[in-house]
Amino acid sequence: PVRLYAAVHEHDIHFHLLHRKDGVRVREMMVEKADEEAVESGEIQSGYALPSGEFVVLSKSDKEHLTPKASRDIDVQQAVGLHDLPLSAYLRPYWLGPDGDAAAYFALGRSLEQAQKQAIVSWVMRNKHHFGAIQAREGRLLLIDLRSADEWVDPAALDVPEGRALDKRELAMAEQLIKALDGDFDHAAFQDEYRDRVQALI
Known about the structure:
By secondary structure, this protein is α+β, with helices and mostly antiparallel strands. The protein is 22% helix and 27% strand. It is built from four helices and eight strands. It has helices at 60-66, 102-115, 168-181, 193-201, and strands at 2-6, 46-49, 55-58, 75-81, 90-98, 117-125, 128-137, 140-146. It has a six-stranded antiparallel beta sheet with strand order 1-5-8-7-6-4. The protein has a two-stranded antiparallel ribbon with strand order 2-3.
């Protein structure tokens, strides 16, 4: 048994739309593309655009029928190496904490850490089916939401230009630069300067 905790807290700055005349908040409205007439929310339906320009319309019952069955289970599918997945597969991390049986929780974490493995899992959250990887980090379990395989970009498919062969002096300079910049990573040293400036101005 585990509890799910957010592993990141986003701090993006969000602005509201205000009427310039009196400073009152305004809201966006849906309008028909053809005649710019306002459309009420109850008159709007979802449509998937086909290459032909036609739309496939799904009703609310269609969507409900396709929605995966709600479940509180995280199903373990397999165990793979820590480096078996490309970085582009990882989407969003969550911390897992014990919910009752702490011994089983820490036993799983220790086993994954000793085997240098990650568990590939699946679960349903907010009416969507997810795949993820559970890793042992800092004595705790980390669940990372994974992108679908068809969203990964294979670097072998990229058109990378070929350059000339590097000579020994260039390689030596690059090695000297890396050694000069070598050090421990400090998260606090890297901040969103634009956000800090906007907050200071506000």
